[in-house]
């Protein structure tokens, strides 16, 4: 089974939110094979769990390493004990802790995963069906373990910008291959109104059903149910989840949070070289309907959802561009986003991991900094009060960089810019934070971090407004 999310731990609610809710089994258990208990007849939605331990600032700045994996899909292999990020153009990286990464396969190496024959031979049906005459370039692979066999679901298109595309799968006895025995999952003939059959991601729902979400631009993001062998239950393209158009959306990923009892559909909007940004909607059902924080159905509007991050720059650091095409994995009760970013518009990309938190209303908010092993916990107003660099992200999909500005979060609950009062902040349950700035209210959490700009330990805040606009704050 795919090793992505921790067990569906039951939550016994007695009209109150229990304080300690989390992972009850091993590090990376699959929901459908949970070693914990789950009974849907007595299930209660308890909302976002509150940490029970006091938060502690990290002490050591990590060595993340620099690896290039475009469109990373993260997979935990219980045989090697490693995490693998599989990406477009055949790239692969690995990690033992999701902090330090090692390049396993560089982009363009078509034989590392397919043996001496290479991908052109092992993926003959995909290449011939799409009419590709040159070297085959595959996109956005996703690895799923079913029984003792590793299956890689991957995609290709006849040409960049064409929806004549297809998804196939290959199999191997080992996570790094060699992969073989191509099987067809779905193809699009490139006709108007048909979805782009690329970017497959598989997940199990809380009842153990297997699904594949896929799609990009054109007709949008779709979902299909798969059987226990990982093959489509029915013919056809499946169910539309998110409308697409000429500038989005793509790279879908769905995960389930047992604490909130929601499925979260994440996509990337915009141009992958310039203004890429991650967005999220949620649903009580794996196949929808999904809605954003304002209740808008994304099948009616492509560019909606709660935005997690856009192009930004903290004071003292360089600009970060085009965060996107992410996957999510749960480790030790923590949800971690694995995505690619750029250091310049249309520049080279690299892989990053950031922790994902959930606010009081169960909406995800993302750390302003790369993951360093930090653990969320409780804090006090006096502990975290002080000067912060604050980034107010743009909600729209745009290239403009959101620059940080200096604010003071006083222990008295006031927010000052210089000597001018600009708003207020409030801590609840020692974890959740409400920020009111220039008349807009943001709901989020406080967490420890190692700041990317300067490798210094600091408190950070991450929150979203009631229209899905994110705000970040890094302590100085």
What does this protein structure show overall?
It is globular and about 65 Å long. Among the domains are: 146-366, 5 Propeller (Tachylectin-2, Chain A), CATH 2.115.10.20; 381-475, Lipocalin (Beta Barrel), CATH 2.40.128. The relative contact order is 0.12. It is built from three helices and 30 strands. It has helices spanning 118-122, 124-129, 381-384; strands at 70-77, 82-88, 92-95, 102-105, 139-146, 149-157, 164-172, 180-189, 201-204, 210-215, 221-226, 239-242, 248-257, 262-269, 277-283, 306-309, 312-313, 321-331, 334-342, 349-358, 364-366, 386-392, 402-403, 405-409, 414-417, 420-428, 432-437, 440-450, 457-465, 470-475. By secondary structure, it is mainly β. It is 3% helix and 42% strand. The strands form seven sheets. Strands 22-24-25-26-27-28-29-30 form an eight-stranded antiparallel beta barrel. A four-stranded antiparallel sheet has the order 1-2-3-4, with no helix packed on it.
- The CATH architecture of the domain at 146-366 is 5 Propeller
- Radius of gyration, Cα only, in angstroms? 22 Å
Oligomer: single chain
**Overall spatial form:** globular
Helical segment count: 3
Strand content: 35-45%
Major beta-sheet overview:
8 strands, antiparallel, barrel
């Amino acid at each position: 089974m795919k090793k992505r999310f921790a067990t569906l731990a039951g939550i016994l609610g007695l009209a109150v939110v229990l304080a300690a809710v989390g992972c009850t089994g091993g590090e990376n258990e699959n929901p459908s094979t949970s070693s914990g208990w789950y009974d849907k007849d007595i299930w209660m939605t308890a909302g976002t769990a509150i940490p029970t331990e006091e938060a502690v600032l990290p002490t050591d700045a990590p060595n993340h390493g620099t690896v290039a994996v475009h469109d990373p899909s993260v997979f935990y292999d219980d045989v090697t004990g490693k995490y693998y990020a599989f990406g477009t153009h055949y790239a692969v990286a690995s990690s033992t802790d999701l902090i330090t990464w090692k390049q396993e396969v560089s982009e363009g190496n078509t034989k590392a995963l397919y043996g001496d024959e290479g991908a052109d031979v092992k993926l003959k049906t995909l290449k011939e069906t799409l009419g590709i005459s040159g070297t085959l370039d595959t996109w956005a692979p996703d690895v799923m373990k079913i029984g003792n066999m590793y299956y890689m679901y991957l995609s290709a298109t006849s040409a960049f910008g064409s929806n004549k595309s297809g998804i196939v799968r290959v199999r191997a006895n080992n996570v790094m291959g060699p992969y073989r025995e191509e099987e067809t999952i779905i193809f699009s003939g490139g006709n108007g109104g048909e979805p782009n059959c690329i970017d497959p991601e598989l997940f199990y729902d809380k009842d153990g059903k297997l699904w594949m979400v896929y799609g990009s631009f054109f007709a949008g993001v779709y979902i299909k149910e798969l059987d226990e062998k990982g093959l489509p239950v029915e013919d056809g393209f499946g169910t539309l989840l998110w409308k697409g158009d000429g500038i989005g959306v793509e790279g879908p990923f769905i995960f389930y949070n047992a604490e909130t009892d929601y499925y979260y559909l994440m996509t990337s909007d915009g141009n992958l070289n310039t203004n890429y940004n991650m967005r999220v909607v949620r649903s009580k059902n794996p196949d929808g309907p999904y809605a954003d924080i304002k209740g808008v159905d994304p099948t009616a509007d492509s560019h909606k959802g709660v935005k997690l991050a856009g192009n930004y720059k903290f004071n003292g650091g360089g600009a970060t561009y085009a965060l996107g095409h992410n996957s999510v994995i749960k480790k030790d009760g923590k949800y971690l986003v694995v995505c690619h970013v750029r250091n310049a518009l249309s520049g080279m990309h690299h892989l990053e991991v950031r922790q994902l938190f959930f606010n009081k209303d169960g909406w995800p908010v993302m750390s302003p900094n790369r993951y360093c092993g930090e653990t969320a916990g409780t804090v006090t107003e006096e502990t975290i009060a002080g000067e912060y660099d604050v980034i107010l992200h743009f909600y729209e999909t745009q290239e403009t960089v959101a620059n940080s500005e200096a604010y003071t979060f006083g222990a008295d609950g006031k927010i000052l810019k210089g000597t001018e009062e600009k708003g207020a902040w409030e801590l609840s349950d020692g974890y959740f934070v409400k920020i009111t700035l220039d008349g807009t209210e943001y709901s989020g959490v406080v967490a420890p971090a190692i700041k990317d700009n300067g490798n210094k330990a600091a408190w950070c805040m991450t929150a979203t407004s009631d229209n899905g606009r994110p705000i970040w704050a890094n302590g100085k």
